[in-house]
Amino acid sequence: MKTATATVVCCFLAALCEGFDLQAAGVTATGIAEVFKPTADQLGTFFSASTLGLLLGALLGGRLADSIGRKRTLLASIGVFGAISLVTAFTWSIDSLTVARLMTGLGLGGAFPTLMAWVNEKSAPNRRRANVALVYAAMPLGGALVSFMTLLIPSDRWRLVFVAGGVAPLMLLPIVQWALRESQRHEGAAPAASAAPVEPVVALAESKMPKAGSFIAIFKEGRALPTVLLWVCCLLGQLTLYLLLSWLPTLLVGMGFTKSEASLAQIGFNVGGALSAWMLGQLLEGRWRTPSLIATFIAAPLLIYLLSLSPGAVWVVVIIAFSLGGALIGAQGYYYASAPIVYPTTIRGVGSGATVAAGRLGSVIGPKLGGILKSLGHSSTQLFGDLVPLVMLGSVAGFAFAFIVIKKRVGTVKANRGIV
To answer: For a disulfide at 82, which of 170, 331, 340, 401, Cβ 3.0-4.6 Å?
Structure first.
């Protein structure tokens, strides 16, 4: 198996495990509530615990990936979140469960920026964004799998979800160890002279190589504005995404739907997201890049608004959830696929890690915000309405970031052709 193919396959499987584990909390909430009787605020804290760990893990994992190597960092991250997920199945209170989720998040957080940086480096120049988006699509697919699993087991057997979420990544460890090779820079090898030419945007970034793992360098050489816009986009996008991933089944039950109907909508949300992330990744490499981004940014706030109108038929809710997952997760796939090309190799891990960390901050705030709003008496439909302005702001930031990236790409291509 070619190195690039092996990297994409292994990283896809790792992201699938991560997506399964990330959404395990939301889909087991009903069973957990029956056992531990948490308040809405405690439940929000539980949802946010793993995402707080994700924030810290993303910052640490990105730096370690640049310093000690992608492979070592990924193996450690997978091992941590697999082992702690198993421990989660034996927790005895909402407090111990929350601590276990915090520790799981540390491992999960270190994995994803490493996956992004590694896939970007191992892919051909004309497949970088598509392959990163493909790997990102595995995360909502993992969420769909865990949602489907909860349809097959009673809610009081919720501990089985965390057992499955721990066993799968631990089984993946020896495959990753056997199949993947470390990046050439960490092997001490020079890049092959016959390597494919670097993509124009990357070539611009690589022209002045900063110190490995330097956080300050991600704001230099024209990278400050796209970096800040990326952070805003990811923060607001992940805030909305993780609020819905954590609370969507509970909110739909509050609107009168059954647990099975809510799980069906959750599956639709994740499947729509996985398909959208994959499709958008393909479109990013062709002439449909701009129209697809415009459609994605416009659709997100519109679909949230439609959900706030409290549609009564379950099939309508499933269609809206499917489309909304596609818009939100597709947009995040674009941001994460674009992040590695903004930074040169020596700071790609820390740049990608900081981008992921900004998103993780939103993912910490989102579930907790849902708990606070529910504690204040907001109904399910009111809570959906509360999200509309935030999603609109995220779309505006997304338009601005896409404009900068496209303008930079066009200018660089013209410069390379001697036009400017």
So the answer is: 170
333 and 281 Cβ atoms separated by less than 8 Å: yes
Residue that has been written with the tokens 């492979």 in this structure: 71
Break the chain into its structural domains and give their ranges. Answer: 3-180+197-416
Q: Which CATH architecture describes the domain 3-180+197-416?
A: Up-down Bundle (1.20)
| Alpha helices in 153-193, H assignment, sequence order | 159-179, 184-187
Helix, strand, coil abundance in the chain, percent, nearest 5? 85, 0, 15
- Residues whose CB falls within 8 Å of the CB of residue 96, separated by 6 or more in sequence, listed in order: none
Write out the DSSP string of 13-54: HHHHHHHHHHTHHHHTHHHHHHHH---HHHHHHHHHHHHHHH
pLDDT in tens, the chain (420 residues): 456 788 788 888 888 888 888 788 878 888 898 889 888 788 878 877 877 777 777 777 767 766 777 778 888 888 888 899 899 999 989 999 999 988 888 887 777 777 777 777 777 777 777 787 788 788 888 888 888 888 888 888 999 999 999 999 899 888 888 877 765 554 444 343 333 334 444 433 444 567 665 778 888 888 889 899 999 999 999 899 888 877 888 888 888 888 788 888 888 888 888 888 778 777 766 677 788 888 889 999 999 999 888 787 888 999 999 999 889 988 887 887 777 778 877 777 778 778 877 887 887 788 888 888 988 888 888 899 999 999 999 999 999 998 887 666 545 544 445 443
